[in-house]
Amino acid sequence: RERERERLRTHTYAHKGSEREREKERARDVYSSAVGAAVADECFFELAHRLASVRAARWAVALWLCGWFPLYLGTRTLANTTETVLTMMAAACWPWELLDNPKSYTVGPKEKHGPSLPRLAHRLALASTFIALALVVRPTAAAVWLVPAGSVVIVAGCAVSVPFVGQSVIAPSAIAAATVGVLTLVADRLFYGRWVCVLCNFFAFNFTQDAGSLFGVHPWHWYFSQGLPAILLTATPLFLHGTVLGLRGCLSLRVIAATVMCSVFCHSLVSHKEFRFLFPVTPFAILLCGVSVDHVLANTKWFAQAGGCHCVGVLSGVFGCLLWCIQCFVHNRCRMLLGKKRRKKK
Asked: What percent of the chain has pLDDT above 90?
């Protein structure tokens, strides 16, 4: 009996210790996710003010902060959340001004001729580092940057010169991406004990073998017919209107609209689809929603004078926060309780 009591006492202490360690790990995960969400919000604020007018940027930031999807997924410990944070950091560093005014980056002082070539190379190197890290986390991040990268290369080559592209665009980006790639291969070699190309394995698993279909199969139009409407909800008409305005607007907004469409199309090629896969491209879609709101308010002054802007903003915030509360405090809690009951039955 004494031995049995000692064994139970030791097991209890070990169980309490393991529970404390789990709580500490959860706290670290929560704090790191909160920091990542704050960084993503700040980068989105910077991106919105660089690409849109002041009022459009304010509405885009309000829609982003009040949207149920960013509130629900922004602080979760998922690879898609990390990919979104790195994507927003890269977008904040990306030289979008080069698309609208290619000759703004010239060799000369910033006060006279705009940003200099070293500044452009620095921005591209920093953005390419974040893009490469996002590719390491989830290789699907390549779908987000196909259009912006191709647009910068084409515009810089046609409007300035080919040596300009090689010196200030391709060279710093290639160096930064190659550095991250080599460090990733070395890290995989140390942890796996052999040389492994995770990027190749990812594409083989999802495209060649189509093993993701084991988790569910959806039709090709699922992201267009259900994915984006569920993520944007009442902002879906604003997104459609903002896409049309973006395609008619300046080149940077055209690139943003094309980026959303290209990313959704590339994800539609895979049979298995989830809402969280669209999280990295959601900020660009919400930015187009802000452009739409700005255009509507500019052409309906009576609505703004009647206080409609404040009413719409308050209703959007309340609706988004309500959905966020349901997802976090009802949906997730029910899933956790069901999981505990299943484990007890086993």
From this structure: 17
